[in-house]
Design brief:
Strand content: 25-35%
Largest sheet: 4 strands, mixed
CATH architecture of the largest domain: Roll
Shape: globular
Order of helices and strands: EHEEEEHEEE
CATH class of the largest domain: Alpha Beta
Number of strands: 8
CATH superfamily of the largest domain: 2,3-Dihydroxybiphenyl 1,2-Dioxygenase, domain 1
CATH topology of the largest domain: 2,3-Dihydroxybiphenyl 1,2-Dioxygenase, domain 1
Number of domains: 2
Strand order of the largest sheet: 1-4-3-2
């Protein structure tokens, strides 16, 4: 068995592409639009050859999707968890579970999907302001 991809439903393609591509550095590798099915599939890779994230946009969806928390989360290894969280926070993203331990943090995408960030190579030394920052909301 081989892991292929994770799929998340999105309500706003532009917001989701900004989040994943502009802020997190993903690259679009494939797009499929179905006029008959009225949906768009966008496949994004964090690194060449990595399993993609599939963003599914249903053209006629007008309400928020329930149960985003039921999906669980997507996990990504990052080179510097503090720099990643600071960049996201500077761009208006709330850090739901700050990297207090220098190792792990959680945020949510514009569509409420939880993303876990793990520090590559083990925890960094604990730093302010992160070490005393409380968690906010559910992640």
């Amino acid at each position: 068995m081989k892991y292929l991809h994770a799929m998340v439903r999105v309500l706003d393609v532009d917001k989701s592409m900004h989040f994943f591509c502009d802020l997190l550095g993903f690259k679009e590798v494939r797009r499929y639009e179905s006029e008959k099915g009225r949906f768009t599939l966008i496949y994004l890779e964090s690194q060449p050859g990595d399993p993609p994230v599939e963003l599914t946009y249903n053209w006629d969806q007008e309400e928020e999707y329930g149960g985003g928390r039921n999906f669980g989360h997507l996990a990504f290894e990052v080179d510097n968890i503090y720099e990643t969280c600071q960049m996201l926070q500077d761009n208006g993203i709330t850090i739901l579970r700050p990297p207090r331990d220098g190792r792990m943090a959680f945020v949510k995408t514009p569509d409420g999907i939880s993303l876990e960030f793990l520090q590559a190579g083990g925890a960094l030394p604990i730093e302010e302001p992160w070490k005393s920052m409380p968690s906010t909301g559910s992640w």
